[in-house]
Amino acid sequence: MGVLLACAAYAVYAAFICRLFFHILLWVRASEQAFTRPAYAVRIRPNTVAVTALDLLFLRRLFSQNKLLWIGSWTFHLSFLLVFLGHMRYFLNPVPACITCLQPFGLVAGYLLPLSLILLLILRTSSGKNRYVSVYNYFLLGTALVISLSGLGLRVFIHPDLAEIKAYILALFTFRPEALPQSIVFVAHFSLVLFLLPFLPLHMVAAPLVTLDARRREDELRTVMHER
Amino acid sequence: MAGDKGPQADKIAAGLTRRQLIEIEACSRCGECLLWCPVFPHDPREEISSRGKLGRIRKLAGGIASPSDEAALLDGLYACSACGQCHVVCPIRINTPELWEQARLALANSGLLQPEAQIQQLKTIREYDNSYGKPRAQRGLWAERASRAGFFLGPVPTWSEQQSEVLYFAGCTASFDETMQPVAVQSARLLQEAGVRFSILGADEPCCASKLRRMGDNEFRTEASRRAEMLAGKKVRTIVVSCAGCFKGLHSDYRGILPPSVEVLHLTEFLWRLIREGSLKPRHEVPLTVTYHDPCHLGRHNGIYEEPRKVLGSIPGLHVVEMKRSGPFSACCGMGGGLKLARPDLQKKMSAARIREAEAAGAEAVVTPCQTCLMGLSAGAAAAASSLPVFHLNEMLVRSVCPEITFDTIAAGLKSSDGQGGRSAP
Ligand code: SF4
Ligand code: SF4
Q1: The CATH number of the domain where B333 resides is what?
Q2: Contacts A221 to B, Cβ<8 Å
Q3: How much is the pLDDT for B5?
Q4: ipTM
Q5: Half-sphere exposure of B60 (CA within 13 A, CB side)
Q6: Residue B38 belongs to domain spanning
């Protein structure tokens, strides 16, 4: 079982890296030329970068449109980031001070993550709009919810042997897979993460590029619009 | 590209720009676009939404699309007015309208057929240089006939008769569709009222060819370059356009083709400039409560929201109320992007829904500064069995500046004068 899970982990991570690499290759090789040549191309200004960063950090567009959804979405993204950073302590040895500092925040984020997912599910399904939520949405939100709840359960109720888990992960990362830790919940938690990884949208990588470009185009439009 | 992908996937991926390939991956599947899409309520299938289309383009470009994905994408791409609402609400700001146009082009190049009505329309534009299939010589007749009927303060010269810096570009609809010709007549008259020295191109006015771009035709760039060369050769400084579609064409699609020294203005921008300078003076009261419908190509696509409202605001007695969805969130009437050709049923439902929204706002009339929206909304009023009148913005200004040439007066006058016209396509 341990070997099987290790193989699955290697396959999933390799596939994820290949997927990223394939897309980056596709992007690099694609034509930059738009259908019509932008004559008034505006270079990316520091101000544009700052505005984009604020857009992304605070999901500003969603905020202006749907405050409740924004609360759910922003809390989800922030808590996901903190939980992810918190998990770094299982992958790194010695644990950097900055990761250690984040632990209290990570703990709070561990509670907020499933709550935000539940809120998102409620908001999405109560919108009354036919098929607003796709099957993919349910799958993604549902799996993420189970992962976050199992993670919270491990932390709060089950208290597995963290040293054993850390040793297992580090061994996995150094290509010396060891026997599985005892905790069934941990194994389920870890397997679900592996299961979800291939289905994750690549927007984490692509969205910042797109938002930056959209802001640059807005600058460009402003330069060609009249009396603005 | 990767060897396991079919030839179509290769063509589609190659047909999209780098930015667009990144955009198709940037979708977070949040579904916000779906809540706002004006088509979706009338055909609630995932492939109709931006999220659904992006998903299928992703599959096609990745070489994992099934025949049913291809069919669904075609369905979704052509059941779309490219209104840009999904771009405006997308938290990631994916430039969807441009993506749909480019995807249509890439799909056409990959051999996937577009709707027959669109193919015919494109053929007509290429053959006749207008979307109505009328002889080119008839293009300037609206001005000749209106002149004979006495609707102008003086002659409306063609550019060859008077080489002016300002050119009024009427567009196919206001030139050939006799029900819309009053828009061109009123535009020219308002320019005269303000003392603007301008000319028209008459029979030499080309179709802006923006529909080629909207519907994904390969020839757009060549056709646009030819027209831009002709316009640039005339050394005009300002082109005033009264159709939102032609404005998007000449102002935005011709970017990089038309020299930057040529200023392309929508009529409402120019009129507001004239009113502000004091050369055009709305005088008579127009005691009416109206609501303003933002054309997508003017508002969302080019950010012109204020000028038309300022023009309306300058008319004494006129009261403007906003609809629930206005400005960047204004619901599309369905006349753009070739939707009416591909899915006339949807267009009718969309414009009818917009009319109901206008009624709910408590307006006595709907005003729009685009003749194509005017046609669409009028059809929508009929479909909704509503008595709410739909006016071109010119009509409001004319009632305040020169009330003797109302839309109906001109329509009747042009009908009774000789010459040709008549309504056919789009
Ligand atoms: S462009 Fe408009 S009609 Fe097309 S998918 Fe987006 S919102 Fe819907
Ligand atoms: S709003 Fe944008 S990110 Fe969200 S589903 Fe639609 S296209 Fe994707």
Answers
A1: 3.40.50
A2: 302-303
A3: 46
A4: 0.86
A5: 31
A6: 7-109
